[in-house]
Amino acid sequence: MEKKNNKSKDSSTILLTGLEEEVQLAPLTRKIRLQLTPPSLADNRSDLDRLSQALFPSFGRIQVPLPLMRKLPQVCREQNWEITALLGRTTQGWKLLELQAGDTTSRHYGLAVDIGTTTVVARLLDLQTGASLGTAADYNGQVSYGEDVLTRIFLTMESDGPGLLQEAIVKTLNGLIARLCAEAGITGEEIAAVVCGANTAMVHFLLGLDASRICREPYIPVLSNPGFLKAGDVGLQVLPQGLLYCLPSTGSYVGGDVVAGILVSGMHRREEVSLLVDIGTNGEIILGNWDWLVACAGAAGPALEGGVVAAGMRAEAGAIDRVRIQPDGRVTYHVIGEGKPAGICGSGLVDCLAELLLAGLIDRAGHLADGRDSFTLVPANESANGREIVITQNDINNFLRTKGAVNAAVEVLLESVGCGMGDITHFYAAGAFGRHLDLESAVTIGLYPDIPRERMIQLGNSSLEGARQVLLSEEKLQEVEEIASRITYFELNVNQSFMNKFVGSRFLPHTNLDYYPSVRARLAARGLIR
Q1: If you average pLDDT over residues 12-26, what whole number do you get?
Q2: What Cα–Cα distance (Å) separates residue 482 from each residue in 26, 225, 411, 427, 486?
Q3: Does the residue 395 lie in any domain?
Q4: What is the pTM of this model?
């Protein structure tokens, strides 16, 4: 047994990479320096009229809250009528968020956030320049109440459930905010806007909403687009009256994180048909082009995150994330970080199953060769805990159900719009898992479609990138809301066609090898099929 143990990125670094697009800077909050004309007997306009008229040419009629009306006289006179107005975008136009004496335009910050079921990532941005000032990640504090979404949704049925989940995620976010502010040398109150990409349930938890109906027929959330909220209303330690905007969702299980993936991929602007798959703790699938977008979702992710694999673990130090198996059964593997392996993460599992298939150690139905009930990846004396790391027949069966669900969902979407597998011209893998998955391994087992590899794009953390783009650009804000309004959502829980296809889809790579010509050729070259 050989081990490759080169230094690898830790779990937080894995979540930070991905595509990044330059946007025309027009952030959701603006800091404007004004040199107002002091009043005189010849100019006896009120302080508020003086401010409003100075801002009107660029922002139209603005909303001014009563606390700022009270603050206005002192701020105007403190620096001889030089003031900085902080404005925030609302659905009705622009609203005054804060007034400061003098010119403070150089200190204007925002936060883009990806709230994942397992991990939360935040990026601090300078809203005057668009520059990134730092990124931080941490585990979602809600994990202590349950690693999967459904467990947490059930918790919201209890009287104190919504409050407990909100407190946990806000604590996680405030910890990240404190870290980023300390590193950048700023205060939390200088952060004027927070934009979050998250699935529908995570948005409900953040806002302290009852999410219980998301998982009960007819699967209706409290809301899909919360609009512009006050960050202080949920307890974020930023400017209390600053903006909080959650990317809009479509349906109970296709959230703003997936809408962000569409935005970042640009598939909604293409004439050709594209497929986007985001597999995390849940799996979301989008099919479409510039004319139409259809979507569905299901609990595909847990098997890929170690949830139903005996030796499974998250993609963190000690996890096997790469596997190669020779025809004679000899194994080489790569471990995240330094030290001995403690388990296997999702990308390692996909690699392992692809290698087992190509080595002839499992058949297309997923049965281990020679009637054995497990395959040893790491012997006990090489592991971190002194126990063998094995892939069991039960692990493989669980994975085939997960993979089969993805296959069946894709086929349902294709069938719904009259397309075939051959009509997919571009494939986008969203999420941290998709970013680090070996494409050939994913195609080999049928998790991803068999199309030209140059048309397969790994987006990385598109939820974070989508939040960044919307934070920095009014144009992207309008675009993301338009995308959400266009999506047709298919509820798989009551779709008989899905259930029929699911039953016949638990083969490697698929029951129909015509869908996977490159895999068929590789299997044939190794004498594994005729």
Answers
A1: 62
A2: 18, 12, 26, 22, 6
A3: no
A4: 0.89
